[in-house]
Amino acid sequence: xxxxxxxxxxxxxxxxxxxxxxxxxxxxxxxxxxxxxxxxxxxxxxxxxxxxxxxxxxxxxxxxxxxxxxxxxxxxxxxxxxxxxxxxxxxxxxxxxxxxxxxxxxxxxxxxxxxxxxxxxxxxxxxxxxxxxxxxxxxxxxxxxxxxxxxxxxxxxxxxxxxxxxxxxxxxxxxxxxxxxxxxxxxxxxxxxxxxxxxxxxxxxxxxxxxxxxxxxxxxxxxxxxxxxxxxxxxxxxxxxxxxxxxxxxxxxxxxxxxxxxxxxxxxxxxxxxxxxxxxxxxxxxxxxxxxxxxxxxxxxxxxxxxxxxxx
Length: 312
Description:
It contains 11 helices and 2 strands. The protein is mostly helical.
């Protein structure tokens, strides 16, 4: 059905499938199965050593890329790319999880909102008030728009199914072992740096999409990404969060607790602190940015089709 539509069309279709149908159940989800397999490999390979960690990350990314290449041989490159993008992106799951937190906040149930928040962020939700929960959700929407939608599309466009799956593998491995802790300080270093590298262009593209989605603030959004984002500990999340903060007229950043570890994030944006109602505004920004990306891909697919049909 999708054979012959090219990479832009295949990526656009994969994003549309995710946006309409969402992710498959964990028992059937290829990314979840990948994570389970890599957990087993980690138990065998772990050592407090960067080289062991690099081998772990390398095996995971190469396995994912090889899977994408094999799928292309079996069903065709366009079909494989559509499927890879559909299972690697998580736009619908992201907005659904955010909306669940918002509903609990609207009902005044902070405990339920904190429980739902763990599906979006890795920070400790205990003790967070309404404003801090809303901040966590908005920051997660910004970061995951970049990681779970834009980066998937970009690497699918550049590298086909192998590219989309390799990026998703790197991002999954970073979530597993890339965080700072006594266990993963060395072992997770390679996974974290690889995810930073692969996510770098997508974060900048995300800022552009956000600026297009909020054109009245476009100049300020791009300025905030240049001026505020460098203070963030992540070279990519800071860019996406700064863009969201400026687009929504908010101030993000602050103190985040991760178990026994506490991080003080610099302020991003000069607006007011987030409130529960801002979650829906941030969801709307995710959807507008995704739509702009899909329209750009569809336009590129049309141009590619016309050039192929009428070109020399």
